[in-house]
Design goal:
about 210 residues, alpha/beta, Rossmann fold, 3-stranded antiparallel sheet, about 25% helix
Length: about 210
């Protein structure tokens, strides 16, 4: 099926430090997560939850320490094996729902799965031809989640993933996360609220 059916992997950090705008956000951070596991990164505003995800995704450079993936695809970099889903939905308002999904599939590359099935899974199949500008905040979030299904990557880095989702949407996403973990995926999520699935907590300290 997909790369998610590969063997065990471990994502770990040792002594990781992050500096933003000349300010040390955190230092000496150790963490580890294995395939089939979800880790909820908790902490106050400004403690570095989003920064940690961005470091793993290769969008920021660590000020110290190392981040290593063992057991992944040896021919791909760590960022190439990650989905980073920010707390803001990166959508083009003038494009339709399905065109937005096609854009991201083309941009990310790799093996592509059925976009229509992905939209059905997140409850947006009825809105496939609507411009993204017409979507509610919850529907925009669902469209962003569909990206995780259309291009399969083993590591999901999620920043406040349930933002704008109603109770039904949160239940739907909980099911998607459990399926991802069952296929050997790994999830690290920055969140203020429970993920809705079994997860291990990683708490980051820091300033507000």
């Amino acid at each position: 099926m997909s790369g998610l059916d590969q063997g065990k992997m471990q994502l770990s950090g040792r002594g990781v430090a992050c500096v933003r705008g000349g300010r040390e956000v955190f230092a000496g951070l150790d963490f580890a997560a294995v395939s089939g596991e979800a880790v909820a990164v908790m902490g106050r505003n400004g403690s570095g939850k989003t920064s940690l995800l961005r470091l793993i995704a290769g969008l920021l450079i660590p000020a110290g320490g190392t981040i290593v993936l063992d057991g992944g695809d040896a021919e791909m970099t760590l960022p190439e094996q990650c989905h980073y889903l920010g707390h803001r939905d990166a959508l083009k308002p003038a494009l339709s729902v399905e065109e937005n999904l096609a854009f991201w599939a083309d941009f990310l590359g790799g093996e592509r799965f059925d976009a229509a099935a992905s939209l059905t899974a997140v409850g947006l199949d009825h809105a496939a031809h609507l411009p993204a500008a017409f979507l509610s905040a919850g529907q925009r979030r669902r469209l962003s989640l569909a990206r995780l299904l259309t291009v399969r990557r083993r590591i999901w880095l999620l920043d406040e993933p349930t933002t704008a989702l109603d109770v039904a949407g949160q239940d739907m996403f909980g099911g998607l996360m459990r399926e991802h973990l069952a296929r050997g995926g790994l999830i690290i999520a920055a969140t203020h609220a429970p993920l809705g699935i079994e997860s291990r907590e990683l708490r980051i300290g820091g300033a507000t």
